[in-house]
Specification:
Chain lengths: 295, 268
């Protein structure tokens, strides 16, 4: 059965409104989505595009007003299965301060396990394991409020990882962190995906983070605007700009160069590739047959 | 640093007293209080006071700190002592001076006993908070009162509230500081004027703080639900407390003092 692709999240034409009785505006409007197991999906969109609302629909924190959401094959509307859904669909929020419950790191990580009724010995082992995965073992007995933002967010991630979820939904986990903290958290996320085989859904507005995903979904006004590989999505520079989103700087540069009819490859998304392309261009290896190219 | 504020006053350390099981500390404190109120004579105070001195020495908490703890209650102590003087019985202190006839030995004795009793009570009970972190205290309290859940007392919910409250003290203190600075930057004045003026000046701090606390509460609730929080039923505990030898020795000593006081009351 392993070669059959399995989707961990599936939405069928979901719509969502915070006040359905008053016919208030739809925050989500007809979203059809399938997210495969062990993929790394980034969801982009400016504020109010519905991306956080969508994320909360994935694990039954919010239930769709219309349509169905299946998490690990279970309909999220089944209230008796909600714990199983939430255990498998771990969710991390933006502000680590508002997710940490206990006053000591290891006790906080144990919180979810206590809720699930995990026996004590197994709990101790799983707390240590989760700390190890996020690289916070040496802070086991520290008070969370004394840690840096990136460390706090890693503790929050460990608190979720301890449940051994199949999927990790992250709602702008780096938005409140400094560049160092962002790097720590991104490295942790990527390691989780590659080493633990966790499916990652990352909601972000940082382009350099979205580029690292296997698939990028751009949302606008409660709908999916573009969906595809980062290479594919970031070609649509004009479209992204029209919904007030940036593209990675490298893609932007390539886009500008192409406006001048300089034939550069379209799939350049990071600095390293960009430097390579530019140096080839300057050496004259890329055919520049339309324009004089002087620097 | 303002962030270090905790409820009560906890002095981290690793003395035997610090390491004792917090449940035992609570129980023994209650026994100690009971013993104090049963004391009727000097010998009883010698025993309870002696026990307290031993505890102070073992816990290595500076005596000045202990004395500072009494200071805020000095007024109450003096007040009770003062009134106890008037209600004495027995022989007058100055039989030859007529207008001092109300001053009796019994009154002086009562006043003195009251002072000793209150001082021992305050210092003795504060040792529980001096040597136990607030988290451990709530934890222990939850476990001790957990039988009450059979009479429908929401023990788990109360303990959860206390834990979250303690967890958010540093966060909200931080936030208060930020809001204060933000309002100062906009020209708010918190330092001048009379009390009413200053109290009014706090409103621009309190309102944003409360609004933000509610927002935090909502987010925290979501985060707790994401971690499968489902009330107290079927929960297991990460931290397990067990009584060790030192707890039994402590219990033995305190109970010995307790029994001695009863014996002293009976035979002396």
């Amino acid at each position: 059965m392993s070669n059959i692709k399995t989707e961990i999240i599936k939405t069928e034409n979901i719509s969502f409104s915070y006040n359905p009785e008053e016919n208030s505006a739809l925050v989500l409007d007809g979203i059809d989505l399938e997210i495969e197991q062990n993929s790394f999906v980034a969801i982009l969109g400016h504020n109010g595009s519905g991306k956080s609302t969508l994320a909360k629909n994935f694990n039954g924190i919010l239930l769709p007003t219309g349509g169905k959401v299946y998490a690990c094959g279970i309909d999220t509307a089944q209230s008796d299965k909600i714990l199983e859904i939430r255990r498998n669909m771990g969710m991390v929020f933006q502000n680590p301060d508002n997710q940490i419950i206990a006053t000591v790191v290891d006790e906080d990580i144990a919180f979810a396990l206590e809720n699930l009724g995990v026996p004590h010995d197994e709990m101790v082992q799983r707390v240590d394991e989760a700390l190890e995965i996020v690289g916070m073992t040496e802070y086991k007995h520290h008070a969370p409020h004394r840690l840096s933002g990136g460390q706090k967010q890693r503790v929050a991630i460990a608190g979720i990882i301890a449940m051994r979820p199949k999927c990790l939904i992250m709602d702008e986990p780096t938005a409140m962190l400094d560049p160092k903290g962002r790097k720590e958290v991104m490295a942790t996320i990527k390691r989780l995906k590659s080493e633990q085989g966790v499916t990652v859904v990352l909601i972000t507005h940082y382009m350099d983070e979205a580029v690292q995903a296997d698939r990028v979904i751009v949302m606008d006004d409660g709908k999916i605007l573009v969906d595809g590989t980062p290479e594919y999505v970031f070609q649509n520079v004009g479209l992204l700009h029209s919904v007030a989103l940036d593209v990675p700087q490298a893609a932007e540069l390539m886009y500008k160069l192409r406006e001048y009819d300089i034939k550069v490859p379209i799939s350049v998304l990071n600095e390293k590739d960009c430097v390579e392309v530019l140096s080839k261009l300057l050496e004259g290896k890329i055919d520049n047959n339309h324009r004089e190219f002087n620097l | 640093m303002i962030k270090d504020i905790t409820i009560g006053q906890y002095f981290p350390g690793d003395s035997v007293i610090h390491k004792m099981d917090p449940r035992m500390k609570i129980i023994l404190t209650v026994v100690y209080i009971a013993a104090l109120f049963m004391v009727k004579n000097f010998w009883g105070f010698l025993l309870t006071g002696g026990l307290l001195i031993v505890i102070i020495l073992i816990s290595k908490i500076p005596v000045q700190t202990v004395l500072k703890g009494i200071k805020p209650l000095l007024f109450i102590i003096v007040f009770t002592a003062f009134f106890n003087i008037f209600y004495g019985t027995g022989a007058p202190v100055f039989p030859d001076i007529g207008w001092l006839a109300w001053l009796k030995w019994g009154g002086l004795r009562n006043a003195a006993f009251m002072v000793i009793r209150i001082v021992l009570l305050i210092t003795g009970t504060s040792f529980m908070t001096y040597t136990t972190s607030p988290v451990m205290l709530t934890d222990a309290l939850e476990r001790l009162i957990s039988p009450l859940r059979y009479i429908k007392v929401p023990v788990h919910e109360l303990a959860m509230m206390m834990t979250i409250a303690m967890r958010f003290i540093p966060t909200l203190t931080d936030e208060t500081e930020k809001i204060t600075n933000a309002q100062k930057a906009r020209g708010a004045d918190f330092e001048t004027g009379n009390i009413i003026r200053r109290a009014k000046a706090l409103i621009p701090i309190l309102i944003p703080l409360i609004v933000s606390a509610f927002r935090r509460a909502e987010e925290l609730a979501d985060a707790m639900e994401c971690r499968c929080y489902n009330g107290g039923d079927g929960r297991t505990r990460y931290k397990i407390y067990s009584f060790s030898l030192r707890d039994y020795i402590a219990a033995f000593i305190v109970l010995a003092v307790f029994v001695s006081i009863i014996l002293i009351n009976v035979f002396i």
